[in-house]
Amino acid sequence: MAQTEFHNDAAVLDIGDRPSFPQWVGLSIQHLFAMFGSTVLVPILVGLDPSIALMSSGVGTLMYILITKGKIPAYMGSSFSFITVMQALMKGAGYPAIAQGTMAVGIVYLIVALVVNFIGSDWIDKALPPVVVGPIVMVIGLSLAGTAATDATMRTLANGTSVYDLRYFAVAMLTLILTIIYNMYLKNFISLLPILLGIVSGYLIALAFGIVDFSGVVAAKWFSLPDFQVPFLTYQPKLYWGAILSMAPIAFVTMTEHMGHIMVLDKLTGRNFFKDPGLNHTLAGDGTASIIASLIGGPAVTSYGENIGVLAMTRVHSIYVLGGAGFFAIVFAFIGKLSALIRSIPSPVIGGISFLLFGVIASNGLRVLIDNKIDFNKKRNLMIASTILVIGIGNASLQFGNYTFSGLALATVIGIILNLVLPAKAANE
After folding, report:
1. In terms of Cα–Cα distance, which of 73, 59, 17, 72 is closest to 328?
2. DSSP state of 20
3. Interacting residues of 395 by C-beta distance below 8 A, sequence separation 6+
4. Each residue of 122-139: b (16+ CB within 10 Å) or e?
């Protein structure tokens, strides 16, 4: 599984590097913690079992690593793109409909992967040059800024409304400051755990501020079997065309986000994953992860932007660390007390960490532009980058009935079109 033909010496642990056992445990748990908040938030919003979502993300990550031949350090987590549709389906036919829609999403991925396998992916280099890639990467990070700010400032009341809480902001900023200090001043192995240390420190600060709810931890059992939803075993499936037609088209939206994440990983690791192992393998891995989720009771999954932030910040790209994160996700799904403890991490702690993680993603997009010496004195480059940034960050989504094309996906498509149709020089240049 290890890549031997190329080694990125800029990384602390490159993709094929195997850490020692203590390092593996610490780095993998750190990675999982960074993914945890978003992974369980989706099922909580939809009404699914968070433990199942945690397990499906772990199994999906391991399957993705297997299908991509252990060459891509990516983590599969619950997708936010399907929340609205899944909420509607849950109120109607329930999870069986969500399962069928999620499986349809995975099948769409596999079909597109098959097409790419036959026609190749060389067209990607022409459609997605640095002037398009850089702004898209920036959008991936900056479009999440609002989520981080909300987590860091807003407290949800019992009636569902949110109010500004100065304590939340204080906890978030202290968490952020400590995480920055850990990144800048720690040495040796401990310097590889800034995010885990930041979360632990933030949790203790939140505890001192009185915003940690332990009731779920007290009520939880040490061993708890996740609420599996298996077709023909826990329910009798039938055809739900509404679910299929509602969720399958959104797969094309998440594909653009998936490709954006692969672009960032290319720059981050010094490789070209579109060629090796190939876009067909990355899409097949993502699609298979969703199909697995649909068979055990989880939501649709996708590659995570938070994963990129952790890789960029720690410079630990080891596939063994990612596999370890997937393994611990599965284990945690069965440990009730531990899962409840992680779920009790207050949102301002996640928000404080996210300020840094999402910012690192955006900064990597800026680095793409700088490294490739994109000249913004040229109007062509200025028009492309400006359009992508504002549409993507502003989330100017395109809606057709119940279907929504996200701002990121729309910005990506428009950026590609502008790159293909605009002349090298403006008429007045």
Report:
1. 59
2. P
3. 143, 406, 407, 408
4. eebeeebbbbbbbbbbbb
Q: How many Cβ atoms from other residues are within 10 Å of residue 233's Cβ?
A: 9
Measure the CA–CA gap between 428 and 426, rounded to whole angstroms.
5
Check: CB of residue 191 under 8 Å from CB of residue 25: no
With tokens 């040059």, the residue in question is: 129
**Would you call 167 helix, strand, or coil by DSSP?**
helix
Question: Amino acid letter at 391?
Answer: I
Q: Which residues, including other chains, have CB under 8 Å from residue 227's CB and lie 6 or more apart?
A: 49, 51, 52, 297
pLDDT in tens, 122-154: 666 677 788 988 898 888 788 878 888 988 998
Q: Give the predicted TM-score (pTM) of the model.
A: 0.71
| pLDDT per residue as tens digits for the range 206-226 | 999 999 988 888 888 888 888
Whether 293 has a pLDDT exceeding 60, the answer reads: yes
Give the bridge partners for 20, in sequence order.
Answer: none
Q: Which of 127, 363, 101 is nearest to 242 (CA)?
A: 101
Put residue 315 in one of left, alpha, beta given phi > 0 → left and psi -120 to 50 → alpha.
Answer: left
Mean pLDDT, the chain, rounded, equals 86
Main-chain phi, psi angles of 316, to 5 degrees: -105, 105
